[in-house]
Amino acid sequence: MPKIKTNRGAAKRFRRTGNGGFKCGHSHRRHILTKKSTKRKRQLRSTSSVHPSDLRSAVRMLPYS
User: Fold this and answer.
1) pLDDT, tens digit, for every residue of 46-55?
2) How many angstroms separate the CA atoms of 14 and 24, rounded?
3) Which residues contact 33 (CB under 8 A, 6 or more apart)?
4) Least C-beta-crowded within 10 Å: which of 17, 48, 52, 58?
């Protein structure tokens, strides 16, 4: 049985959690920050968990994480 390649783009964006889920950073925090409120930018700093509907594709992209 051959090894499965890890999707390197996904490996840079997702990390496996202890319970088997994935955590990721938020989008929309790179530029055009002046119109966004301080509260919104502060909440975008934290990580979020991958939605259950996207979990299967994340598992397939990261088989050994």
Assistant:
1) 999 999 999 9
2) 5
3) 41
4) 52
